[in-house]
Design brief:
This protein has 15 helices and 2 strands. The protein is mostly helical. It has 2 domains: 27-57, no CATH class; 70-272, MetI-like (MetI-like fold, Orthogonal Bundle). It has a two-stranded antiparallel ribbon with strand order 1-2. It is flat.
Length: 278
């Protein structure tokens, strides 16, 4: 190994060691959650703590599934998070294309106003949104959870910035062939934007899957509860069975892990927003 290669290898090692240490540090809570889900209460509170259970208590997962209707809550969260993600991708894509490619009076002012709404805390918008839902008789309904989240300025901003990096010459050539605006969007823009769209889908699904406060406000019927509310129901006044709660929480992370692994490559490309490579 030459001196140049050795120096490059040492530089890479020094660069990746802090990253590896940070990754391990962030994984520790997740590993502790999985470890605690396979213990009994005595092992959970044992000091000094042991990462590997002395006795593997797999019954905690069965108890978590049967203590509350976890399967129903799972399905409710999948429906709400899935439909919200699809809807927000549709609205963000159309709006981003309009602000990136079309011209109309006041376009920049409207776009700035949309971005300004990102500075309004979500808690401030809850009261007027709740009043509107009550007017529509959407309290304790899935549309009360889904419809208010179908449009978000972050997705519009994110996709618009990527669309601006796509060469206009591609659209000009398509228009010369008689392609319409929607045809350009679906046949040229979207195929080139799989990375940012995948990243946005992960962000939206993750946020909706972990949402707790808004479903707690809107929903009243137990059968319609989402998974996060179901996890909170595992804590009662008589005390919390922590191994069972950790087992239920471990089950709740499975869709997120599967989604990220499936979209990992496109997700990493999307968050960089590098555009096209020439």
């Amino acid at each position: 190994m030459t001196v140049k290669k050795l120096t490059s290898w040492l530089a890479g090692l020094l660069l990746h060691l802090p990253l590896l240490g940070g990754a391990i540090f962030m994984l520790l809570p997740f590993l502790w959650m999985v470890s605690s889900s396979l213990k009994d209460n005595a092992q959970v509170f044992q000091f000094p703590p042991q990462w590997i259970p002395q006795t593997w208590v797999w019954e905690n997962y069965k108890a978590a599934w049967e203590s509350v209707p976890l399967g129903q809550y799972y399905w409710n969260s999948l429906v709400v998070a899935g439909l919200t993600t699809l809807g927000q991708l549709a609205t963000a894509t159309l709006a981003a294309y309009v602000f990136a490619r079309l011209w109309f009076p006041g376009k920049d002012v409207i776009f700035l106003l949309i971005l300004a709404t990102m500075m309004i805390p979500e808690q401030v918008k809850m009261i007027p949104t709740f009043i509107m839902l009550k007017t529509f008789n959407w309290i304790d309904t899935y549309q009360g959870l889904i419809v208010p989240a179908l449009v978000h300025p972050f997705g519009i901003f994110m996709l618009r910035q990527f669309f601006l990096g796509i060469p206009k010459e591609l659209e000009d050539a398509a228009r010369m062939d008689g392609c319409s605006r929607l045809g350009i969007l679906f046949r040229i823009i979207l195929p080139l934007s799989r990375a940012p769209i995948s990243a946005l889908a992960v962000f939206v699904f993750l946020f909706q899957w972990n949402s707790f406060l808004w479903p707690l406000i809107v929903l009243n019927t137990q059968e319609k509860y989402t998974l996060q509310i179901g996890l909170a129901m595992l804590r009662d006044e008589l005390g919390t069975n922590w191994p069972v709660l950790m087992a239920a929480t471990s089950l709740a992370t499975i869709p997120l892990i599967v989604l990220f692994l499936a979209a990992q490559k496109q997700f990493i490309k999307g968050i960089t927003l590098t555009g096209l490579k020439y």
